[in-house]
Queue: 4 jobs
Job 1
Amino acid sequence: MKVYVIDNGGQWTHREWRVLKYLKVDTKILPNTTPFEEIGDVDALVLSGGSPSIASEAGRMGNNGLYLDKAPYPILGICAGMQFLCTHFGGTMGPAARPEFGKATLHVDSDGDIFNGLPREFTVWQSHNDEVKTLSEDFEVLAHTDSCRIEAVKHRKRPIYGLQFHPEVENTDHGYDIFSNFLKVVEQWNK
Amino acid sequence: MFDAKEFVEEKIEEIKAAIPGRAVIACSGGVDSTVAAAIVSKAIGDRLLTVYVDTGFMRKGESATVSKIFDNLHLNYRIIDASEEFFSALKGITEPEQKRKIIGAGFIRVFEREAKAFHSEYLVQGTIAPDWIESGDKLRDTIKSHHNVGGLPEDMKLKLVEPLRDLYKDEVRKVARHLDVEVSEKQPFPGPALAIRVIGEPTRENVEIVREACAIVEEELEAAAKRGEMERPWQYFAVLLPVQSVGVQGDRRAYGRTIAVRAVESIDGMSAAYSRIPHDVLEKISLRITSEMKANVNRVVYDITHKPPATIEWE
C-alpha cells in the first residue's frame, strides 16, 4: 500500500511518515506545493498539521484544496489538515475558545471506522490554537474533548476523515491503532 | 518496526560512497554523535577524525569521560579546549536564539580548523530528526535553532554528512545497542549545553551554578531510580532562572537565586509529559541544592509543563 504525507509544515509531519513506515506502508513526505498529477498512483493521502492559521493564512496550505477536489482515494487530515478540509467543504473555523496543548481526554461519540475496537475514552496529545466551529451537512462528528466539540470528523459520502488531535505522537494512546484503522478503510475503498 | 542491523549496513555503504577522502566528525560523547562516529568509522576507518569540543558549558566531569568512550570505540580523536573562545563570544548575550547561533558558528569555526589540518572537506554530524524539524525551514516555523542545523553559519564550506537525519532518539538508541556503544542509555543533552540552561548571560559564574545544580539533580534522580523509588526519567536537569527571592538562612536574611528542576518522560523528544517524581525525591533535591549551594540559591521550583506547549529545555 502506498500512502503519502502532504507536508503543511507541522512539527509532527515526519512522525506521520514514521508511523506509516512502521506499519509497513510505502510512504514519502511531499511539500504541499506538489501538483496533484505529480503525486502519482497512491492509495491515500495524509494532510499534515502545520503552523498556518487556516482562517488568515490559507495560502500557506498550498494545493490541499486541489487534492481534496481531485483525489479519488481516501484522505486523512490532521490538525491544520482537518481544519482546512472542513472549511473547504463549507464548514467554518476560528480561534479556539479553549486552545489545547499537550494532554487531553478524547471522548469517542461514534465508534467503528477509524475508532474501531478502541475505548470510548482515552488520552490524546494536542497542539492547536484554532478549531472547527461548524461543519457542512456532508460531515459528522466522531469525537470530542471537554474543551473542543469537534475533534474527529468523517465525510458522509467520500472516504475523507479529519482529526484535530495528533495520533502520530507517542504520547497519544492508540495512535497506531487509529492509523491501522484508516489503512483498513483505504484497503476496503481500493478493493 | 525498525531494524538497526539493516540500517547500519545500509548507512555504511552510503557513507563509503559519500566520503571518498577524509572527514571530521563533531562528537560530544552523547548518544547521537557517538553512534554516528561508530558507523562512519566502520565505513572509512582512520580516514575519520573525531573531534570533541570543550565549550566550557559541559556538565560536571563530562570532558574527562569522553576520551574513555572514544578509546573503547577505537576512534582516532582530538579533544579541543575552546572554552575561552565560547565564553568571550557569548559575553553580554541573553537572547536564546542568539546564543544558539553564536554557539553553532563557534563549533563550525573549530571544525573548520581541524578539518583543514586533517586535509578534509567533509563534516559528519549526528543530526537527528528533531534537530532539523525544530530548526524550521521554508514551510516550518523555527521553534529553536539547533546548533547543528539552524546554528550553522551561512559561509560554512565543509560538506555535511548526516547519517542519522531521519531517526529519532529511540531509534538511535537501538542502533547504539546493536553496535554495543556504551552511551546508548545516556540522557539527551543539547549541543549548546549549559549555556541554554542559564536564562540570561552564560557567564562562567552562572554556568558553574547550573553545572552544580544539574549534577545534584542527576545524582539524586539516578540514586532514586536505583533504589527502585521511581523510573529514571527520559531527561532531567536544572535551569538557573534570572529571578531572586527573599529567604531566611540561619536567622539571616537571604536574597538568592532560583533553580528550576525539569524532568520529562518521552520516547522521541517531539512530545513529552513532565515526570511524576515522588515528593520525597524532589524534597531531597531541594534540600541538597539549597544547602550545598546556599551562597547562590535559596529557592527551588519544579516545572510541571508538558511539551507542547513547553519544550523540554527552557531555551
Note: The radius of gyration of chain A is 15 Å.
Job 2
Amino acid sequence: MNVDLIFKIAAIGLVIAIINIVLQKAGREEIAMMTTLAGIVIVLLMVINLINQLFQSVKSIFKLY
Amino acid sequence: MNILQITAIGLITTLLVIIVKQQRPDIAMMISLAAGSVIFILLLGNIKTIVSSVENMAQKANLDSIYITTVLKVIGIAYIAEFGSQICKDSGEGAIASKIELGGKILIMVLALPILTALLEAVLKILP
C-alpha cells in the first residue's frame, strides 16, 4: 500500500539534484542550497511517518512497551 | 504477501538507490530506510499469526506467560537493533552501527536477567 512512497522519495531526490544543478548554472548558489534543504526536509518527514508506523506496529506485536 | 512482491520491491529500490546515490547520497540512505520499513510492514500479518500461534501453544502447555513475553521482547529488540545498525552500516557509519548493537545487547541482557536468576535458583534447589 505505501510502496509508492519509495518511488516518491526517489523522484524528489532526482528533482532536487536537477534543480540544484540548474540553479547553480544560473548562478544562484544560495537558492540552490535552500531548495536542496527543503527537499531533504520533505523526504525526511515522509520517512519519519513511515518509521513511526513501523515502530508502532513492532511495539504492538512484540509487546515492547 | 508473496515473495515475488518483496523481491521486486528490493531490487527496484536497490536500483533507485544506485541512481540517486551519485547526486544525493543522503536521500539514497532514506530510500533504503523506507524500503526496509515498507517490506517489514508488508510482512506484519504473517508475523502476527506466528506470534499468536506461539502464544496459544504456550497457553496449552500452561507455560508461565512471563517467559513467552520476554522471548518476544528479546526478538523485537534484536530486530529493531539489527534494522538500525544495518542501515547505519550501509551508509558507511560503522561506529554508530556498533553502538546501536551494543545498546541492543545490553537491553536484551537486562530482559534476560530475571529468567537467569530463576534458572539459577531452580538449579540450586535441585543440588543436595
Note: The mean pLDDT of chain B is 91.
Job 3
Amino acid sequence: MIALLIRDLRLALRAGGGFGLGLAFFLIITLLVPFSVGPQSQLLSTIAPGVLWMGALLACLLSLDRLLALDFEDGTLDVLATAPLPLEAALAVKGLAHWITTGLPLVIAAPFLAVLLNMPPQGFAWLVISLALGTPALSMIGTFGAALTVGIKRGGLLLSLLVLPLYVPTLIFGAEAARRGAAGMAVETPLFVLAGMSLACIALLPFAAAAALRMTLR
Amino acid sequence: MSIWEYANPVRFLALSAKVQPFAWAAAAIGILVGLLWGFFGTPDDFRQGSTVKIIYLHVPAAWIAINAWIMMLLASLVWLVRRHHVSALAAKAAAPVGLVMTVIGLLTGAIWGQPMWGTWWAWDPRLTSFLILFLFYLGYIALWEAVEDPDTAADLTSVLCLVGSVFALLSRYAVLFWSQGLHQGASLSLDKEENISNVFWLPLIISIAGFTLLFLALVLYRTGTEISLRRARAISARLEPRG
Amino acid sequence: MRLTLADVAVARGGVPVLSGVSFALNPGEAMILRGPNGAGKTTLLRTVAGLQPALSGSIDGATDAVAYAGHADGLKAMLSVAENLSFWARVYGRSDIAGGLDAYALGPLRDRLAGTLSAGQKRRAGLARLLVTGRPIWILDEPTVSLDSHAVTLFAAAVRAHLAQGGMALLATHIDLGLDARVCDISSWASLPDDLLGASDEAFL
C-alpha cells in the first residue's frame, strides 16, 4: 500500500499537473471572482468563504479524470485487480494520494487567497479547518466517481455530472462552517457533521468504488 | 406463485400486456377526474384564490418524482442481489419519467410561487431538495447512456443509485440545515398538507392516484420497449459470424 | 499447487464464446492456446486471471497464484524501468528486481524512463514484471508482440527457467517459442450458437 502511495505521489511530482495544476486553478478561479462581482471589499468579504470553498471543490474536480483513467489505459488497473493488495485498499490509497496532491495544497493556500478576498482574519483558522476536514471527502467521492466512469470513452464530463451532486452535502457543511467562522458564530455543528461525513466517506466509499471498478474491468 | 416468476422477460411482457390497458384507462380517468374536479369543482381558497388549484398538478408530480427514485433504488437492489434483467430495465425505464415529473414539479412550483410569494424561485429547503433530485436523475440517465455493455451499465447505474440515495438523503438534511442558517425562522412555508381543508383533499387524492397509475403504465410500457431492444441485441449477437 | 479448469464456460459482452473448457496444468508445465481472432483467447485468459467471472464451471488453484500480462504493459511513462519493477515487486510483497532485469537484458536500461523506451523495450520491461512478482502461474496474452527475435529468445528462456523451477504458464501466442508445451486449439471449445446456458442475456431469447 505504501508502495502504491509513493508511486502515485512520485508520478504526480514528475508528470506535473499534480501539485501544480489544481493549485494554479484554485488561484485563478479565486482571483477572477473580484473581476466578476466587482471590487467592493464589503461584498468580497461576505462571499469569501463560499468562493474559496467553491474554488477548492472545482480544483479537486479538475484532476479527478486522471485519477484512474491513466492506470486503466496502461493496464495497471488490470494488474492491481489481480495483485494481493485488495482493490478497496488500492482505491483508498489512490484517494489519499489525490488528497495529498490536490486537497492538502488547497488547504495550505486558502488563507493566503482569503486575504485577497478581504475575509475577516478571525475566520482564517475555521476556513483552514473546514477545508482540512472536508477535502478528504471530496477526494474519496471523486475516487468513486472516477471508478464509475473509468471505462467510458471521454468520461470526463460525465464524471463531473455524477460527482457534483454528490459534493452538495460536503459543500454545504464545509462552506457553512467557514462562513460561521468568518462571522464569529459557533461553528461546532457544521464542523462535526463535516468530519463525520469525511470519515464515513473514507470508510465506506472505497468499497463502492472497488465494486464499480470490478464491474468495469469485467 | 412467486413474484420472481415475472422476472422472466416473457412472463413479464405477458402480464404487462394484460395490465397495461387497465392502467392507461384508470390513469386517464383518475387524472381527468382529479384535475377537472380540482379546477372547476372546488371553491377558491380564501387566502390564495384560484392559484391554489395548481396543487392538483404540482403535488402529484412531486409525489411521483420522489417515489420514482425510491422505486429505482429498490429495482437496483433487486438487480444487484438477484440479477433479474427486468428489474434493471424497469429502473432504467423509470428514470426519465421521474426526471420529467421533477421538472413538472419545479415548473408548477415556480408558476405557483410567482403570484403567492412574488418570486419564481426561492432557495427554500424543499425547492432546493428537488433541484438536487433533478441533478441526480440527470447523472443516472447520463450514466446509462454512456456505458456500452448493457449489463455493465445496469451494474454501474445500480451502484450509483445506491450511493446517490445516501447522498440525496444527506443533501436533504444538509439543505434543511443550510436554509435555516440563512433566513432565521422561514417565513415561507411550503407545507401544503397543513393548509389543506377537506374540500380540496379528495380531488387531490384522486389526482395522485391517477398520476401513480400513469407512472405504472409508462414504466410498464417503457420496460417492454427496453426488453425488446435487449432481445434484438441478443439475437443479433448470435447471428454475427464467429472468428 | 496445480491449476485446474473443469467445464468452464466464458462469455464476452454477455455472449458465450467458449464452453466445456477443461484442462489442468501441473508444476513445470506450460500450455499454449491457439485460435483465430475473436475465438476467445483473451476472454479465457482474463477469466483464469480472475478479472471476470466464469459463466459456469470451476477454476481451482488460480486465486493469489497468477501473474497476468495483457496487451498493455502496466508501465508508467514517468518512472524509470527499475522504479516500475520495484513498485510491482513491492505490491506483491517482494523487493528483488535483479532477476527480472537480468532475464530480459534490461540492466543498461534500468534508469531510463519507461516513456522513452521503444515498444519492444517496454514489452521486455512488462514481461520482467512477471518475474518480480514471484507468482507461480504466468498468464500471458500475446507476450511476443513487438519483440525482436533476440528478445523472443530471452522470453522463451525466461519461461523455460520459470517452468524448471516448478512454475506454470498459460500463453496465447502464434509464435513457436521452442517450448516443451502442450498446444491447444481453443476452437474445439467454441460455444454453439444455440448454447445459451448461463449467458447473461439468455433470458431475452
Note: The interface with chain B takes residues 13-15, 17, 36-39, 187, 190, 193, 200-205 of chain C (CB under 8 Å).
Job 4
Amino acid sequence: MSTYRAPLSDMQFVMNELAGLSEIATLPGYEEATPDTVAVILEEASRFATDVLDPLNASGDREGATRLPDGSVRTPEGFKAAYEQFVQSGWNGVNKPAAYGGQHLPQLVAAGIEEMWHAANMAFDLCPLLTQGAIDAIELVGTPEQKARFLPPMVAGTWTGTMNLTEPQAGSDLAAVRMRAEPQADGTYKLYGQKIFITYGEHDFTDNIIHLVLARTPDAPAGVKGISLFLVPKFLVDENGSLGRRNDVQCVSLEHKLGIHASPTAVMAYGDHGGAVGYLIGEKNRGLEAMFIMMNQARFSVGMEGVGLSERAYQRAVDYARQRVQGRAVGIDKQGKPAPIIEHPDIRRMLMTMRAYTEAMRALGYVTAAAMDNARHAREPSERAQHQAFVDLMIPIVKGWCTETAQEVTYLGVQVHGGMGFIEETGAAQYSRDARIITIYEGTTGIQANDLVGRKMTRDDGATAKRVAAQIDKVAAHLASQDDASLNAIGVRLAAATAALQNAIDWMLASYAAKPRTALAGSVPYLNLWGVVCGGWQMARAAKVAVDRLAQGEGDATFMRTKIATARFYAESLLPLAEAYAQAVVSGSPGALALTAEQF
Amino acid sequence: MKVLVCVKRVIDFNVKVRVRSDGSGVETSNVKMSMNPFDEIAVEEAVRLRERGIASEIVAVSCGTAACQETLRAALALGADRAVLVETDTALEPLAVAKLVAALVRQEAPQLVILGKQAIDDDANQTGQMLAALLDWPQATFASKLQIADGKADVTREVDGGLETVEVTLPAVVTTDLRLNEPRYATLPNIMKAKKKPMQTLSAQSLGVDVTPHVTLIRVDEPAGRKGGGRVADVKELVAKLRNEAKVLPPA
C-alpha cells in the first residue's frame, strides 16, 4: 500500500525560490514565519497528514457518513478522534488572527499545510475548510460582540462553521434564494426554509455548529441586492459563551454522492418548529458582498484541493508502477525478463505528465498565496493594489485550471494501475471520484471562466491581464537567450505559448465588448489557456533557479536536475496545448453557438 | 525536580541510508535528519513528568554541530523548557558524549537524566550506561515504565524473557525503550513558542572535555545483496546446505 509522504522538498523549494517566503517574513505581522520555522511547521504537519489523516482516507470512503434516525450524523470510524487531535494540535487556526487564538501565519504557509490535508484526506479537511470560510465572513462583517462570542471557539476548532448558500432552485444563481428571515422584537430574526448541499451541516466532531445562512428579510428587494447573511447556531450561545437550548435547525437527510463519502453533505431544514433563531451578520441586503470576498479564499482552497489530490494520485501511481511487473521493457532488457511497468515508455509519459502538472499547479498556487499576503501586508498602498489585482485575476485560474487539471491527473492515476485501477481496493479510483466535485463546488469551471472574462479581465480593460502576460513574456525571452540547452528550449516554447495567450487576450477583450455570447462560449478554453501558460511560467522560473543552483553547487543536485527535466517536459509536452486552446478560443467560439437549442 | 534529556540528531528513520561512493561513511548531505526516535520517547516522558507535577524544569541537551539546534528546537516544541547545545565539529563517540553530558550534569545538577537507550544511526547503546558510571549514579536502562516517588524511581525494564522492575535512588540515569510511551505531535502553538525559548551554546572545550576520537573508521560498505534462493529436495539436503554452504550448523 502506498503511504502519503508530503513533498516537502518541492514545497520548500517553491516557497523559498518562487514565492519569496523570506520576503513575506519581513512583512509586518509575519516576522515569525522565517524559512527555518516554516520548515519545522511543514515537517510536523506532514507527520500529522501521514500518520493520522492518510490512514483514514480509504476507510472513510468505504464507510461514509451516516444520518441516524434522531437527525444526528455519525462520521466514519476514527474521524472524530482525528478531528480532536487536529484541533488540539492547533492546526485549525493556522492563518487566523492572533486576537482570536490563531497563529496568524502567512497564506503562503497555510497553502502548503492545506495541500497536505487535501492530499491525505480531503473529505476530512472539508470540515476545517468550511469553518475557516465562516470565520473569515464573521471577521469581515461581524460586530465586535459577535466576533468576541463566536470567533474564539471557531478558531480553536471546538465549534465548526458551515456555509448555507444553495437551495433547490438557487444553485449558481443565488438571486433565486428564498429562505425567509423575519425580524423579531428583540433584534434577532427567525429563519424559515431549506438549504441543500451543506458540507458538514451536521456531524459528531463538536458540541456546536455555527451556520452562516443567506436569506431574505420581508422588505428585501428582489434579486441579489436583497440577500442578507445570518448566523444561526445549532445551540444558542449566551453572553458568557455557554451553550443554551437547541435551535430549530435540523439535518433532514444526507446526499448519496460520487465521492467525498466521509464528508456529510446535508439537507438542512430551518424553522420547521417555530423558527430558527438567527443574527444578522453585516449590513442588511449586503450578504452576498461578504460572501463573495470570503468566496475568493474558498475558491483558492478548492484549487489547492486539486493540487493535493493530484500529488496523492501521483504518489500512488509511482508506487504501483514500481511494483507491478508486466511485460518486457523495450530497449532495456535484452534477455526478455519481465519488468516493472515503470520501465515502459508510455507509463513514464503518464507519470511525467502527472508530476509536471502537479508541480506547476503547486507553484502557481503558492505564488498566488504569496501575492495574497503581499496584497494585505505590503508597505506601500500601490504595491498592495498591484498584488491584489494579480490575486483577483489568478483566483478563477487557480480554481478553474487546477481543478480541471486534477481530473486529468487523477484519471492518469487510475490509468497507470490498468484494470486494478478500476478496482476500489487499490485506492486509485477514490482520488478520481473525490476530485470530480472540485470543478463544481464553489463555482463551476464555467462560472470561474465567466468571472475571469466578465469581471477580472474586463473591469480594468485587460490592463492586469496584459501586464501579467508581458511579465511571462519577459521570462520566456530571458530563458530563450540562455546557453543552457534546457533553459533555451523552455524559453522558446514559453514564448510561443505566451504569444498565443496575448493574441487570445486581444480577441477576448474585443469580442466581449462586441459579442459577449460568443466570447463566453470560448471562456473555458480561455481559462485553460491561462492556466497552462501560467503553469509553464512558474516551471520556467523553477528551471532557471535550478540551473543557477547547480552552477553555484548549492542545494540538492538530484532535486535540481529533476526539476529541470520536469520543467522541460512541461514546456515541450504540455505547453503546446496553449496554442491549441488559443486557436479554439479565437476560431472556435462561434461554433459552440452554431446550433439552435432545438437542434440538440 | 530538574530533568535533563539528551537528544541526538540522526538520519530520519524513513530515509534509505546510502554509503558514500568512496566508502568513507554514510551519505548525510541533503538527507533528511530528525530526532532519534528513542530520544523523542525520552522527551515525552520528561514532559509527562512535568504534567504530573513531578518535574519542574526540562533541559534538552544535544552534542554535535550547529545543525543540532534544529533537533533541540524540536525538543522545545514538544515541551522542553530550555536547551543546551554542546557544539563541536568532531564526530563524537559515545564516551565523549557521556563525558560532555556528565560535565553538564555537574553544572545543572538535575535529579534525573533521561536518554534514548540507543540511537538509530550507530546503535551503540552505550552513552547512558557510561554516563551513569562517570557520575557514579544508579542506572535503569531499557525502561518501559517509570514511576517516581519519595526520591526514588521504580523502573520497569524490558529484558530478555520478560519484564524486570528495579528501584533506583535519585539522582539517576534512565534510558528509554520503545514501549515507554507514544510521543505526542508537536502542536502548532508550541512550535511557535519554541522559537522564543532559551537556547544556550557551549563549546566542548569550555566543559573541559577532550572529545578526540579513539576509534578510526577505516571503511564503510553496503551490506552484500541477497542471493536468490533455491528449492531443496529433502531435509537431508537442507541440513547439508546449512552445514556446508551457510555454515550455521557445526560440521558433522
Note: Chain B touches chain A at residues 14, 30, 70, 73-74, 77, 185-192, 194-195 (CB under 8 Å).
